[in-house]
Design goal:
This is histidine kinase. This protein is 50% helix and 20% strand. With 441 residues, it is α+β, with helices and mostly antiparallel strands.
């Protein structure tokens, strides 16, 4: 629409310039014709003065009228006629008086015999603002007007002419050619600007890709620090407890702690393996996932945190929940991050008031899972930015847990959202397709 408007504007300006130039040429041509007409009329009238000086009362009127058709009557001047001013006789005629004779002159004949008189729409001769003769259409005012007084004491007339532009002779073909030219220019400029814009976008994409790669490396590094911190802390706690029990010679209680440390070590190994898969391949191996065992494993991994916070777990995952295809380590990591976030959100709760509820149910094309906690909920700012990298409301937090969780959910073609629940805390709702290769509905 913008290109069309520019084309219309340029075409209109070109047509206007051509029209003005052509109309100016027409005006100059008509002005030249008016100057010629004025010269011829002045010559005709000056002839009348010469004739008066040559005629006498004995001159033959017929010979005079034959030589000068505009002279209708030649007679001896009447005493009442002035010898200095013409006497109007009506219908474009007037008496021109000399010393001895008077001439009745027909101005219609004077004007009609001149070739330039046909070049004008209206032609007039005035005397003292009184029209003597009018040729052409006098009912309307012409677009162009020319006026000039005829020099002479005996015939002090004023010549006036009018004409209109000849619209038929405007340069219509040139206007059409200019319209085509502007269309080609606009098409060429548009193509050039589009090409230039594509080049700029390509350069920006290349720069953005480089920045994204560097940013991704930073996020991966920060994410691995975030994910490895919890199992390493757990291993340290288990080993310190085992050493304490060993000093107390309570060897029977050491084995479960070492087994838990082994589980956390395997978790670190799985995280590193998963990282290598992400960096070397876009394909993630999918397996049928039964949600209940995965949730039980997450509870075991966070057993210390759950016991420290005296957290009540409400499990509403049905036994007949159908499995879905996904990456097991990814689903475990998602649930781990959500549960850890719920635990940390309820650290300031009253004793034995912390709780987490997990529920799941099948939909037409996948599994919907909700995780609700009894914390204070999310602030308005947190609701808007909870999945942004490095956004955190916790002192000392990295702000990567929820960002990584969303990345993993979206990597499985799922969806995740956060909201506050009246009378409870925050609720995260997730949707996983039965096959992770399917798209979010």
């Amino acid at each position: 629409m913008r290109k069309f408007a520019i084309w219309i504007l340029l075409t209109a300006l070109s047509a206007l310039a051509l029209s003005i130039h052509t109309l100016q040429q027409q005006y100059e041509e008509h002005s030249a014709e008016f100057r010629i007409l004025y010269r011829d009329v002045a010559l005709k009238l000056s002839q009348h003065d010469v004739i008066l000086t040559l005629l006498s009362a004995a001159s033959d009127p017929e010979r005079v009228k034959k030589a000068f058709p505009q002279i209708l009557i030649l007679k001896t001047r009447a005493p009442e006629f002035s010898a200095t001013e013409p006497q109007l006789a009506g219908n474009g005629t007037y008496w021109l008086n000399g010393q001895h004779v008077s001439l009745l002159i027909d101005l219609n004949q004077v004007l009609s015999t001149l070739p330039q008189s046909n070049a004008f729409r209206t032609l007039r001769l005035y005397w003292h603002d009184t029209p003597l003769v009018v040729l052409g259409d006098a009912t309307t005012t012409s677009y162009w007007q020319w006026h000039k007084a005829l020099v002479g004491d005996s015939q002090p007339f004023e010549l006036s002419a009018g004409n209109d532009p000849d619209w038929r002779h405007l340069p219509w073909i040139s206007m059409l050619l200019f319209a085509l030219l502007w269309a080609l220019v606009i098409a060429f400029v548009s193509r050039y600007l589009m090409y230039k814009r594509q080049r700029v976008l390509a350069d920006l994409r290349a720069q953005f890709s480089e920045l994204t790669r560097l940013n991704t490396m930073g996020e991966i590094t920060a994410g691995m620090v975030h994910e490895l911190n919890q199992p390493l802390t757990a291993i340290l706690s288990y080993n310190q407890t085992a050493l304490s029990l060993l000093k107390q010679e309570k060897s029977a209680e050491i084995a479960p702690l070492l087994n838990a440390a082994v589980v956390q070590t395997k978790r670190i190994s799985a995280l590193l393996t998963d990282l290598r898969q992400k960096m070397h391949s876009d394909h993630v191996p999918l397996q049928p996932i039964n949600l209940k065992p995965v949730w039980s494993r997450v509870l075991m991994l966070l057993e210390n945190e759950l016991q420290a916070g005296k957290m009540k777990i409400i499990n509403k995952i049905p036994d007949d929940l159908p499995p879905f295809l996904a990456a097991p380590q990814w689903v475990e990591q998602i649930l781990h991050n959500l549960l850890l976030n719920a635990i940390q959100a309820q650290r300031d709760n009253a004793p034995k008031s912390a709780w987490v509820e997990i529920a799941a149910y099948p939909t037409e094309r996948g599994i919907t899972l909700t995780l609700t906690d009894g914390g204070p909920g999310l602030s308005e700012q947190a609701l808007q930015n909870v999945f942004l990298p490095f956004f955190t409301t916790r002192q000392g937090g990295l702000g990567l847990g929820m960002a990584l969780t969303q990345t993993l959910v979206q990597g499985l073609n799922g969806d995740i959202s956060a909201e506050n629940v009246a009378g409870s805390g925050a609720r995260f709702t997730l949707w996983f397709p039965f096959n992770a290769e399917e798209q979010t509905p």
